[in-house]
Each structure stands twice: as C-alpha cells, then as structure tokens.
Amino acid sequence: MMEVLFLGTPRYAAEEAIRTRVADPANVEPPPVRTVARRAAWRPRPSVLLLASLVFWLGLWSLAAWLAWVPPLFLPSPLAVAARFATTLTSGFADATLLEHAAASLGRVLFALAFALGLGIPLGIGMGLSPWVRGIFDPVIEAYRPIPPLAYLPLVVIWFGIGEGPKILLIFLAILPPITLSTAAGVRGVPLERINAALTLGANRFQLLRDVILPNALPDILVGTRIGLAVGWSTLVAAELVAATRGLGFMIHTASNFLVTDVVIVGIITIAAIAFAMEFAMRLLERRLTPWKDKQ
Amino acid sequence: MANGLELEAKRLSVAYAGADGSLPALEDIDLAVRPGSFVAVLGPSGSGKTTLLNAFAGFVRPTAGEVLFRGGAIRGPSAERAVVFQRHALLPWLDVADNVAFPLKIRGVPHRLRRQTVVPLLIRVGLAAFADKPVWTLSGGMQQRVGLARALAADPAVLLLDEPLGALDAITREDMQRVLLDLWASTAKTALLITHDIEEAVFLATHLVVLSERPGRIVARLDLNFSARVAAGEDAADIRADREFTAVKAELRAIMQRRAVAPALAATA
Fold it and tell me: What is the pLDDT of residues A206-254, one digit of tens each?
C-alpha cells in the first residue's frame, strides 16, 4: 500500500531535476536531491505548524491570565484549568468523574450514530434509486435540516419526555440528514458506464446494488458519517440541557450555573478532544477503506 | 440463428426525447454482422455511432426497425454481448484479478477458484504481474487491458467496443490495437468497434461502415483484410505503411470530410 501511495514520487523528482537543468544551462551537473530538499525547507511540516499554533495560543492565554487582562473568574489560567482537569478526573464534578461524564456523552452520540446509520443508509439508497422515495423524504429532510436542534428540543421533550430516549433522538435527528443525503448522492453518482458494464457481464439488480452501487457510494457514506459525527457532537450540549444527570454537556451546563469557569473550559476541551479524535479516526478509516477515492 | 448472423440491424432508427420534440440519432441503419468478423463503425462525434452500439448492447430501444442477436430481438443487456467502455467501467475497490474475475463472481464461482481461473487471461493480456494491484494505480492502457480481459472472462459471443482506446496516447493506442487484434484472432469472437480514428478502423476491421453526421446514416461500406493479414503473421508496421492501407485511409478521410462540409455549404448557398 505504501509503495502504491508513493508511486508518483520518483518521477516527480526526475522531472524536477530535468526542469532545473533546462532552466539553468550554465549548471552542468545540478544535484537534484539538493534542489528538492531546498524546496522542502521553505514549507514547514504540518505537524510543526500545528505545534507552533498550539504553543502560540496557549502562550497568549497564559499571558492574558497572568497579566489579569480578564478576571480569573471569567478566564482561569491554563495551569488552573489543568489542575481542575486532574481533580475532575479523580474526584469528579456534579456526582461523576470526567470519564463517567465523557462515557455517558460518547454513549449517546454512538447510539444516535448507530441508529442514524441503520436508517440513513437504507433510506439514502432508496432516495438514490427511486424518484418516488426521494420525492417523499427529500422535502422533509431538507426542511428540518437547517433548524437548530435547540429550536425543536421543547417539542421533543413535550412528545417524548425527559428520559434517555429523547436525548438520543435529538442527536439522531441531527446526524440523520448528512448520512442520508450523502448516501443518496453517492448512489446517484455511480458512473453510468460502471452500471452498464456490470449489466452486460450478467449482473442482476441485487448484484448490481451489492457489488457496484454500494461500494461506489462508500466514500460518500463515510463523508456523511464524518459530517454527521461533527453535528452530533455539537447537538450534544443541547440534548443534555434537560434533566440529565451525567454527560459532558450536563457538566458544562451545571458548572456555568455555578460560575465554575474552569470546569466549563475542561468540558469544552474534552468535547473538542473527543470530536477531534473521532474525526481523525474517520479520516484514517476513509484512507484505509476507500484509497481509490478521487483517483478515478 | 436463422440466417447465420451474429448481430443484425434492420431499418433501425433511434430518436431521443429532447426538450422540443424528438432528436433523431440514427436513421434507417441496415447492418449484418457475421460470426467471427470484426466490424468497425467509423463516424464523427455526434454521428450516433455510440447509439448504434447501445442498441446492440440493449441499453436503448429502437424507435423504428429492429436489432437482432442470432435472429432474436434484443430486449436488454446480456452476458452474450459484453461491452468494453472508454473509461469509468472498472471497479476501483477491487484489484486487477478480482476485476477480471467479476463476471465469474456474478455466476457464483467461489473467490479462490475464480482468481485461479482468470490467470491464463491475465497472462494473455500481459497483466500477470499486476494481479494484486488496485486498478486505480494502473495507467490508462493497463486499465483498458483489464477491461478487455474482464469482458473476455464473461466468455461472450460478441465484444462491443465503445471507443475503448479513445483516451490513450498514440503509442499506447497502437500497442493496444495489437492486443485487441491478437485477442480477436485467437478467440474467434465477433467484435463491433466504435471509433472516430480512421487508421484504427482500417487496421482492425474486416468490415467497415461509415456513419454520417447526426442523424447517423450509413454512407459507405468497405470490406478489408489488413487485420486478417496481421493475424496471419504479416508485420503490423509493414501493413500500416502499405500503399493500399494508406490509400484506403485517404479515401475514407475524403468521404468523412465531404460529409462534414456538405451541410455547411448547403446552408450558405
């Protein structure tokens, strides 16, 4: 796989060498390796940039707290937040440790994701294949998709109460549209040649769906899942506003009621870290499962 | 197989539904394809030549007239008539061997067995060393070899070739014409090739028809023997340089240019 990924590199280096040679006739033996290395030196690696950015913003935050530009009640120092992080990990906040809050939230998001995949993929396939299914469901999904979950949260509470179900339902409703719509787009986006070729090779409708249409839609389904996870996490805090006893959103909400700003920041950073880790895992999964994406 | 023909078009017309009425693509096509022949359909873009192939493949229905396979009306796609497309027809999530073995998967052959079955085919198209490579890592010419091998793995009676070499560079193209010719000669399959490349059509065809601009009608028919001579062992480069070969090319170019210019002259007159 690595060998395949870097197939283009040697030729690129060779072309680079030739280009340098042509551009500078006085240079009889240009060392191509140095040319490439010098070019590379002008662009810092992404990981270095990321580290520099982290150091810069953490430094600015420390400076702001240290010089007391903002009262510590509103902006505690990074050190205070780190200390609070340690105590929420061990002794907890609002009757649960940080890990228990995180596990509760993660559970809700993953449950909602599982339901959204279970319903969204078949629905998306139906919408991609049949104008009837698309005609019936597309307007509904497009109509509620742009509404912020906080707006229909009261309705969900009135209809379904305040248990665990409605919380998962709210997150599920946020994840469903991106998964459904990108599955439908992926199914519709199969090149006609690919379908026709399979038909002339003897494929029936079921084989066409299983062996051509679904694998072809997989990159779009993965993109939909990635987007769905992101909106799922952003809906989490809204879902845990009402009658929760655990969860990162609940923890943040409670802490803000008592003006415990450092716990609020701990909660935000934890959500960001988990969402980032999931995004990263999804990208790895995409590269592993659909290496052909954008290559055809 | 009443009359011994593999494919037949009888007074075939195809029209597409357009925004303002129907758009005729083909008009009054009569074409008979004998088993084992290599028919090339030559025409400018927009001449409806792909529509003709689509009618034989079963992708489009005749508006008038009929298309037949071994005497029976063609009602839809079938594994008897495999199509090789110009691009986008391979399955990029499978490696070379699994792509070639795809028709066997459709027939329910177990995975290991079908991979073994296609090895001789892979060797014949020069892909044996690439069996485990993902198809998207191959060059355009290599991908077309995979497409050809896959069509042959279905063991069809007819190969329908929809400009399979159209996207290749000149050198790879000549190379692939040789591959195509060798496969046709060694498998004794019937082939119908759609192309806009005069040299390619003359080099490969045993029977050649020229279509006019839209709506496509047959404006010339020609029987040729260059591919048979190459298959019999004559040197391909010698054939391409043959005086008769270049004369046929020039004649066809003249026919196609006259056809292309005539409507424009008529419009200004």
Answer: 999 999 999 999 999 999 999 999 999 989 888 888 878 899 999 999 9
**pLDDT tens track for A104-114:** 999 999 999 99
Residue of A nearest to B150 (CA): A201
A207 in contact with B at a CB cutoff of 8 Å?
Answer: yes
Beta carbons of B78 and B67 less than 8 angstroms apart: no
Residues of chain A in contact with residue B136, where contact means CB-CB under 8 angstroms, are: 291-292, 295-296
Cα→Cα distances B268→A47, B214, B254, B257, B264, Å: 66, 19, 21, 17, 7
Sign of CA dihedral B196, B198, B201, B203: negative
d(CA A274, CA A269) in angstroms, rounded, equals 9
Model pTM score: 0.80
Backbone φ and ψ of B160, nearest 5°: -100, 115
Mean per-residue pLDDT over chain B, rounded: 88
Residue A285, classed as helix, strand or coil, is helix
Q: For residues B210 and B39, what is the distance between their CA atoms, to the nearest angstrom?
A: 11
Structure ipTM: 0.85
Q: Which residue, among A4, A199, A201, would best test binding to B if mutated, counting the most B CBs under 10 Å from its CB?
A: A201
Q: For the residues A268-284, what does the mean pLDDT come to?
A: 92
Q: Among all residues of chain A, which has the CA nearest to that of B95? A: A292
Give the helix/strand (H/E) hosting B68: strand B64-69
